[in-house]
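Reading a protein record of the kind used here takes only a little practice. The record below shows the convention in full.

——
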Amino acid sequence: KNDTPTLTFIFVILTIISMVPLLLMYFNNSLKNGIKKHQSNKNTIIQYLGSQNFNIDREIEFNKGFFVESKYSTLFLDELNKKWCVSIKCSLPIKIYNFEDCISYDLFENGATIGMSKSISSSSVCTELIIRIKLKYINNPIAIISLYKGSPLNKSGDAYAEIMKTADIICSWFSTFIERK
């Protein structure tokens, strides 16, 4: 009886099993490095905003992903000076807007406007969720906050619920800006 195929199979399985800890260490280190890079970039953004007399009162992060350094975006609010801005992927430049510059906003899912009741969209998955802010600038009349763009998310899942929670918070902030005018 020839045991070579069985021994080869056992060798392959043991080799794969022995590689699992190495792969886990690699991904764990990648994630830690991504978090450190994100925090360093975020500190640079915070320093820049401080140099622009922007006092951060509130912030909300969105577009979070597995590889942190490539995903995070942050909406910052300066309630004292009535300003807001979005840092996309924690990078410069950042356009700072006044609250009074906001005319209106709409929430779009998969390219269609949805209401905050979320009952208007009939699709069971989400591939894109954005907030479109109309501004009073002629040269730059629209600002876009992209909360999600990617593979289909099941609307009954936790990831979608988290993104919608963020959308609710941001939309309530913009409602407040507009009402205060």
Remarks:
- Strands lie at 58-62, 73-78, 83-87, 96-98, 102-109, 112-114, 125-135, 142-154.
- The chain is about 40% helix and 30% strand.
- The longest helix spans residues 4-51.
- The chain has a mean pLDDT of 81.
